[in-house]
Fold:
Amino acid sequence: MKQAVAPIIYADSKCLPLQHLPTSIIDLALSRGVNPEKILRGSGIFLQDLTAETAPEKQLTSPEQVIKLLDKAKQNISGYDSSFLLGQRLLPGQYGAFSQAVQHAANLADLFKVFARYQSLINPFIGCELRTSQQQIHLYFYDAIGLTSEQYIYLLEVTLTALNSCIKYLTSSKIKIHYQFKHSRPRYIQEYEENLGFNLAFDQLADVVSLDKVKLKQSFRFTSPIKQQLALQHLAQTPVAQPFLQQMRSIIQTNRSLTLEEVAQLLDMSPASLKRKLKQHKARFLAIQDAQQKEKIIHWLQFANYTNEELANKLGFNDLANFRRAFKRWFNMTPTDYKSTYLNNLNQLSES
Structure:
């Protein structure tokens, strides 16, 4: 039986309501005294589109248009805080059933599940995967649409600030959240500390948000099981469209032995078309396969404390030497070097 594939959001798909992120970007520009036309120029979005009395479902733009808008905003809004200010404006927000499901969540466990499952509805730029360990729950973040490194960091700052601001809004007490980032410590570290807290680790191998499980059942201020159930029922009526790179990851995750040709068949396109789509989204098929394996290893090493033998078995390696060679290809270091370089530093951070 052919594997079911969810609707796909490509970089040029007209799928994002103008009233969502684009309007928030323009509002932020206006609050900083920036002429909106300077932000909109070249994006293919026009000021009259944002204020037109058209049915909301017809006022749609594409991820690549919004990215152009964000690039212009970053150029024209002074300072290093625009991504954080933008994130503060987003959640719970006015996103229909998604906002209702978020606002009326029972607790953090509930919120994380809703966020991981549905956040692509309003944010097809940054993918999110929920994982658990013995003591914590984790959200892994990755590029879902094909961003430059600078664009990805900016949108990750937006996303994490939105999530953290939402948690502050929904709970009356302070929640300790741990952040790991692949990028280096920024010059504007005070913005991270002000908007995300002080539990920050940079130069890591994955972008991960972690929360201790003991905090997961803490009740939220606006919890309403009935209202949230109605919102979730509404969300479940339509399959959730996935950004292209997130869809590729989902397919490969179910069966890593799939070839590019087999994945193309699942997506009802030719191998040549799939290769063009991958190029459009700044991705390679082998790199997506490797990313899946690398993230599993990072998670198991850091949070499950598996031995090399256990890791090799879980990843399907029959020979430990082959696993070590693959590990060195993926991380440019041995498993022992990885543990001493990353895990010891993270342990020291968590104890501080």
User: Anything to note?
Assistant: The chain has a mean pLDDT of 90.
